[in-house]
Amino acid sequence: MKLVYICSPYAGEVERNIRFAQEACHYAISQNCAPVAVHLIYPQLLDDMVPKERKIGIQMGLRILITCEELWLCGSCISTGMLYELKEAERLGIPVRRVSEEDIMEHRKIRKEFMPEEEPSTGIRY
């Protein structure tokens, strides 16, 4: 299973962007990959509006990027934070895959149609 770094916008329309990053992660899972989306984790711990904390968050994300096999550039716009990640992936020789918003949202539609919400079985063992 390939470890992929999900690179998508965070700032601006934060709630919409969080939902999009979540859908990008679901899309990666459907492609038999293990997604890493640091912008779904670090803003819960750091304030993106505080420059020092934003810088720390970006540095931590770049540290995690080193361990990933690909960077997936999701959507059509590239934010400032995404640009840092893209440039670092290129510097490290990490392959970059562009994933369109249409591909991600089409997968969401299919996922919703074919994976109805249901209660988990109590007989399932892990």
Q: What descriptive keywords fit this protein?
A:
single chain; 126 residues; alpha/beta; globular
How would you portray this structure in words?
α1 crosses α4 (101-114) and α2 (51-65) runs parallel beside α3. β1, α1 (14-30) and β2 (33-36) form a beta-alpha-beta unit. The two termini are 19 Å apart. The protein has a 4-stranded parallel beta sheet with strand order 2-1-3-4, sandwiched between helices. The chain contains 4 helices and 4 strands, in the order βαβαβαβα. With 126 residues, the chain is an alpha/beta fold. The chain has helices at residues 14-30, 51-65, 80-92, 101-114; strands at residues 2-7, 33-36, 70-74, 96-99.
Question: Summary?
Answer:
With 126 residues, the protein is an alpha/beta fold. Helix content is 47%, strand content 15%. The chain has 4 helices and 4 strands; from the N terminus they run E-H-E-H-E-H-E-H.
Instruction: List unreliable stretches of 5+ residues.
Output: none
Q: What is the molecular shape? A: globular
Largest sheet: 4 strands, parallel
Identify the strand order in the major beta sheet: 2-1-3-4
Number of strands: 4
Annotate the secondary structure layout.
Layout lengths: L1 E6 L6 H17 L2 E4 L14 H15 L4 E5 L5 H13 L3 E4 L1 H14 L12
Parallel strand pairs: 1-2, 1-3, 3-4
